[in-house]
Fold:
Amino acid sequence: MPSVFSDCQQPFRLAALGAAGLLFAAAPASAGQSKGDASLRIEYQYIRTGDFYDDSALFQSGGDVGTTDSHVLLLSGDYALGPRWNVFASLPYIQKQHQGTGPHDFSEFVNFDPPDRTLVDDGDYHGGFQDLTVGVRYLALEGPLSVSPFISYGVPTTDYPFYGKAIIGPNLWRIPVGVDIGFQPYFSDWYFSGSVAYVISEKSLGVDVNHWLLFGSAGYYFTPRFFASVFVSYKNTPNGLRMPQDITDDPLYQDPADFDTAIWWQHDRLLAHRYTNVGLGADYVLSRKHVVSFHYYTSVYADQSNEIDNAVTLGITRFFGRD
Structure:
């Protein structure tokens, strides 16, 4: 079945980024792109997180730490420097709220005085612009199998707080280095894609929080305009701190002195986050210059992190520079 997508970018790929659990849509460099071709995407995301998982008896099977609700407006775009080179950028605006048990309120700190005591777990929404990401992608191989290495740089736009369950991110710079792969068999309505990236992250307190991001999807063109897919994303931070053993000797978290420390103040940016999310998506071509998309995903595995109960994204992309 001929696809309208063949005249523009392939369906959007997603990669999980950051502690906020965001999924960022990325249009890979496409065969047939010309210098000056560009796209601009506006996307809304809603993300609810729930139970926390770690190695302790309290949280090994998931423990109630309240819920968070995030509302995200994500602006992203790309620009073709030529048939193979592509630059891209993204910037999310996030408002996040924590409700329920276990808010972080700085009462733990008696001897250690946190340099920033901004309170975000008061039941209200807090946030702002998160991290600006810019990068470059190269179409190394085109055809039924496409291969596009990329590198990007993400930096916080403000000195936002990183202590609390309603934080919008870890406030660390990062450099993802990876590759996008796409495959559409000849004479087939199936399309498969994958991404793998190693993310070099700023260290804090000497802790290595470099991590791996993986993404894979399988989709089908039901009509030339309508494409649906299922996908899975995975994050692994192999050298981060693990709770409880790297925070306290008490597996029940009953010693207040263990939380009156710089490590506890920064624990959200130091933990060995691991999670697997699965979801489904749909893209619909309104015209040669407009594509709308919908995605839903949820966590099936979480370790040293909160599980995502439900997440929904709605987006529209406008293409420029093509007839």
In short: Residues 262-265 form the longest helix (4 residues). The chain has one domain: 4-320.
